Amino acid sequence: MGVIVSVIVFVIIAAAFLKQKHSVLIILCILSIFADNFRFDFGPSLLIANVIGFLVMPLVLRDKYLLNPIQRIYNPLWIEFFYLVLLGYIFGFLFPWDSLNSDYRLWSQRAGGRTLVTLLRLVNEFFLSYYIIWCFIKKKIDLKFVIYTIAYISSLSFIIGLIDYFSGYWFKSNFLFFSPSLANRFLGLNGEPKMFGRNSALAYAMLLLYYLTQQKDRKLIYFIIINAVGVIISLSASALILFMMLNLVILFKKVKLGYFIFLALLFSLTFTVLQNNPFFEESTKGKIDKALFGIENKVIPDEPQFFSRFDIFDRLGLVYLYENPQYIIFGTGPNLISIPSSKYVDSLPEYSSYAEQGGIDSVPNVMFNNVLARSGVVGLILFLFFFIRLYRFAKIDRSGFSQVVVLISLFFNMVYFSIVFLFLTGIVVGYIFSKRFENTKFVTSNISS
Fold first, then answer.
1. How far apart (Å, rounded) are the C-alpha atoms in residues 251 and 208?
2. pTM of the predicted structure, to 2 decimals
3. CB neighbours of 83 closer than 8 A, spacing ≥ 6?
4. Is 229 strand, coil or helix?
5. Which residue, 190, 285, 331, 398, is the most exposed by fewest CB within 10 angstroms?
6. Can you list the pairs that 288-296 forms with residues at least 24 positions away whose Cβ atoms lie under 8 Å?
7. CB under 8 Å to 88, separation ≥6 — which residues?
8. Do residues 307 and 319 make contact, with C-beta atoms less than 8 angstroms apart?
9. Measured between alpha carbons, how far is 449 from 439 in angstroms, rounded to an integer?
């Protein structure tokens, strides 16, 4: 965000926090999650949601007794966190990872700094998830409020983005953030077209699911269509793949003739529009083919073809683990994989900018690859336990909404592992827990089953 917007947002956060207007804070959290241009850039880049996560820590800790019955759901994630603390001490400080071309890296991108930043970010996201649950329990928000906030914010991102696109991105250039290299792409209120597309796909799925399972409000149909159009015009390969996956998840769990017809028409329209788009044919289609079938060039002579389906950050991480299988079991530490895997960057000529820089600094985007890289098979097992517990807990919601949200979270984060993971967890747990709070024994027994 620019200075003016940052100051305005900071004042709103401070006023809402002092006056205990938690619904306002939740709106701001959702705003930054679905429109990632809303982040503070004074030093480290932080989403508004992350800033609020730090502010509410004392509040959550003060009333932590409210969360005791559901703590068992989060336990596998906390175990993985403390395991990462151990790995961070080993690979961040005791025997820190280092690469031959690390001079360009800032402190926060080197082993010790990245360890501390990653662990702090994870704690922040835990508390943000707990805060959402706290707000549900305290009746500061409800499910309808969350869903309609997502509807209005995602639509606002689309509408302002549309106006800004045809005005040469005047608004983003002056008040938010804009990269001139993306002037020919549709960004909404996000930094990149793929982020806008993914967020549109997520909003679409959440709104459609709410419409099918909770309340058939015709107004929601307009928001659903807007987000579907947002996915299409983003021309993002990952967003389009995610969009198809989320539709299939909802169709599998909520088989209805009307929805099936709607999907058939939507997919037909999508195919027709994209087939006649030059950018899709020249760029996006190639990325989709790569994700589905891989490419021929290899990082190392015996690289499995499967690895070539991924983008550079996932691919190089997998290659490093393949050549150093001892780290597959226990992991390389909290988001540290990019340091040792940077040695392969010269093998990919299509990413020459990273080679000139000296390496990569981003971590694998796919949840499976990310967790495998940071905490190995140990972490994957813990995440499996977590999703099983959360899915079983979601059965308490007889409408099926919560169970499908768990699947939406799983599939979204298998495309892009982010704050969305614990954000959606907070919504599922908070919604169910708030409904059953008067009967704690019932909730506890269902969690334990």
1. 11
2. 0.88
3. 375, 378, 379, 382
4. helix
5. 398
6. 288/237, 288/240, 288/241, 290/237, 291/237, 291/238, 291/241
7. 115, 116, 118, 119, 333, 334, 336
8. yes
9. 16
For every residue of 147-172, DSSP letters joined together read HHHHHHHHHHHHHHHHHHHHTTSHHH
CA pair distance 262, 244, nearest whole angstrom:
13
Which tokens hold the place of 178?
């804009």
CB 274 within 8 A of CB 280: yes
40 — phi, psi (to 5°)? -85, 135
Q: Are 344 and 300 in contact (CB under 8 A)?
A: yes
Residue written as token pair 């690469």:
99
Say how far apart CA 267 and CA 353 lie, in whole Å: 36
C-alpha count within 13 angstroms, C-beta hemisphere, residue 241: 19
The one-letter amino acid at 336:
L
Q: How far apart are CA 447 and CA 443, in angstroms?
A: 6
How far is Cα 388 from Cα 382, in angstroms, rounded to an integer?
10
pLDDT, tens digit only, all 449 positions of the chain? 778 888 898 899 999 999 999 999 999 999 999 998 888 877 678 899 999 999 998 988 888 777 777 888 999 999 999 999 999 999 989 988 876 556 666 766 788 889 999 999 999 999 999 999 999 998 999 999 999 999 999 999 999 989 988 888 888 888 888 787 777 888 889 988 899 999 999 999 999 999 988 888 889 999 999 999 999 888 888 888 899 889 888 887 766 656 667 667 766 666 666 666 666 656 676 676 676 666 777 888 888 888 888 888 888 999 999 999 999 999 999 999 988 988 887 777 666 566 556 677 788 999 999 999 999 999 999 999 999 999 999 999 888 899 999 999 999 999 999 999 999 999 999 999 888 765 544 444 444 44
In the block, residue with structure tokens 């302002």: 160
- Mapped onto helix, strand or coil, the DSSP state of residue 46 is strand
Q: Which residue shows structure tokens 């994700």?
A: 291
The secondary element (H helix, E strand) that includes residue 130 is helix 111-137
**Going by DSSP bridges, is the β-strand pair 46-47/39-40 parallel, antiparallel, or unpaired?**
antiparallel
Q: CA separation (Å) from 96 to 28, 106, 117, 358, 377?
A: 37, 15, 15, 18, 21
Name 9's Cβ contacts closer than 8 Å, sequence gap at least 6. 1, 28, 38, 40, 48
* Phi, psi at 299, each rounded to 5°: -80, -45
